[in-house]
Predict the 3D structure of the following.
Amino acid sequence: MPVRVVLENTPTPSHVSAVTPRRRSVQSCTLLCAGQAFSGTQNVSSLQKDEAWRVNVRLQGCDLEHGYLCGTMEALNVPMADTPVVTFWEGEIVDARNYTFFTGKWEAAPEDDIRHWTKFTSFSPLLSQVEVDGGKSMDLSNYPYIFMRWKEQYFVNVGTDCGLTIAGFYYVCFSCSDGSISGFYYDPNSSPFQKLELKATNDGRSGFSFSSYELQ
Amino acid sequence: MPASRPSSDQILHRLSSSEYEIKLKAIREVKNQIIGNRTKKLSYIKLGVVPAVADALAEANADSDNGANLIVQSTAVIGSFACGVDEGVRAVLDAGAFPHLIRLLSVADEKVVDAAARSLRMIYQSKLAPKFEFNKEENMDFLLSLLRSENENLTGLGAGIVIHSCETRDEQNILCHAGSLEKLVGGLDGSMSQRDASLESIATILKNNPGAVSKFVELQNGRALRSVIELTRDRFSRTRLLACLCLICIKNSSSCFLQDIAIKTKLIYILLELLDDSGQVGEEASFAFSSLVAGKEDLQKLAFEANAIDKFYNHLQNPELNSKRLEGIFLALGDLCSKLECCRSRFMSLQVLNLLINALTHDEANVRTAACICLKTVSRSIKNLSAGYFMNERIVIPLVRLLSDLCTSVQVAALGAISNIVVDFTPNKSTIIQCGGIKELVHLTKSMDSSLRLNAVWSLRNMIFLADKMCKEAIFMELTASSVATLICDPEPSVQEQALALVRNFVDGCMDCVEFAFAENGIILDAVGRQLKKSPRIEIIIQGMYAVSNIASGNEFHKEAIMQMIFPQAESGPQSFLSQYLQSNDSRLRTSAAWIIVNLTAPASPGAFGRIAKLRNFGLVAQIKRMASDPCMDVKLRARVALGQIISFGDS
């Protein structure tokens, strides 16, 4: 979800260090598949006022083998926008195979990473090992939570001159059990720890529905 | 200068003359006139000159000087007729010259042998040449005698026979076991023509044959392989290309060969450089490049780093490119963009798409097909699909037109591209609907050709992914419930799978969409149920199970219909498919089965209590309890949710 622009130059993010692709990727979870939708809020409160934007997320692609997923994020009541603002984001799944807990780019130092990951209670059992090596020696394939970073790539329905920025990224924790998502937006130039809270939605159904596509 | 019209009475008469001088002069005259002149060849073939020359050949006596002279000249004429003109090859074969030429290979006169071998090589360059039977012992003896000969024309003929007739794995193995590779390797040190013939026939024997490749790389302690690698630096471009093709056959047979990054990079650079050749080598280089990088992410990455996309793009900008070149370049770009986002991104930023769009309306079917294949792989980018780069009239209109192309391979390729670009994550597919795309796609789902049916259903399945109700209704009205049911029971399993995935997507979305499954007295639901009970294929069952699960997430009526499908009789009968799939060895299938239970027992639905009682009576609750400790996390979590819902109604 975009946030307000703060007019400062941001340096180019560094590349993530390569991880030897030997470990098992995280197990597939039907609630984390293309087509699944989530809705909730992002708290954008500042010292001046409390504020939360309604947010809808739709997963458009998920490739566990490569630790990749992507989708769109729609912010509904953005004060400075006439319409809901939709962004396309791409995600890195922390699987100790393609990506570790250490971001290594986007202006996030290991201390920033730890500071954000520890906000998730489900991260506590992993903390000591992550402090040692970023978690690259862990087997996360059976862990009931999936940790990710979501980085917005472009605005889908508004121009870049909309007064909003997508410079930061989200630390995300997904619960495989009920599909709920917690996240914290990180951008050194924005309010810290803006919390994202989403729940799986079901289009008014009495249960869960799953569609699918397959690219050729 | 106007060419003289050949007169049948004159030339035919002289060719059949009993006087040696007249006959020889006539044969020479024909030879001089047809050399490199296709029109003249065709005109003489029409006149019946070929049988006359073949008769002269058959009648001549190789043991006399005059006879040998006649044989050499008439053999040269026959070879010339066969060179590059299929009609000529056909005429030569019809005239019965072929066995005479074979016979002449064993005469004592070297000039006669040379002439016959050259002529036979010409014939073997054509697809019309008779198939050489490698499984006959005497034939193999003959072939090996050619390959081990000191005479370059005979070894060249041997190589030509291999290139022409070796097609199957069995034939490759016969040649391999008979020691032909050892003989052909000898030719790698010979003249340019010998090197090229050897390289091409080695590649023919090695292609897609890991056993032959293993034998070759060990030949002479790896010296044979080193010779081929060395020839990639030859000064002749055709030799470099053929050496590359040999190495590609080796590389493609097993990932353990030619792992060295330097060789892989070298192959890429050589092939990209060969594209600059203005002749046949340049044409073939892009096809060789395709087979080198197809399906191999590491090679695609190296090619990307070698600026391959820019290089192909530069060639594409030449408006004079012939159709073979265009086809090869689009296929190469297609393979290059098949896996890596960085390649697709470069393709898009260079705006190669504009040139590709032009190629969609090219006169040659092969070019149209290649352009569609390229578009299919470029559009595998979710990032670009989501940005809407492909769903626009400039692309969709010509693609939809190609759905009624006269050539089936074009139609299939166009469907491949369409099935990707319709995944644009927008709810209304107005662009494709407005240009008549649905009508064309639905029409092709009824095709006699199974690949057209498969790809048409696949396109529709992708098209209704996340589509709104209006879009789904438009497709459903055109397609009809009975056609969907027919496709679910299609003779081709792959079509069944896509048809069930189509139903799964139809009944996803808003609650009203579930009704699609109940149209025409539930004909679709019945077909889904039949497949779930009888299909042995996991992929088909998974799609069917999710279709059922999606329906089970509907209202009371929908849930009860699914209960009726699972338990058709009130009392216990044969084990239900649901019970069977809950115990499947495939975790994906167990997951889908668990979701059905989750949806049927959703606590907010009024009939949940009754359904739970029924599930318990049939032993499914006990099964779910066991699954709460399933080794697959997804199954385990769904089972626990289902169990939690069941317990909320009171567990017994």
Notes: Chain B is about 70% helix and 0% strand. The two ends of chain B are 106 Å apart (CA to CA).
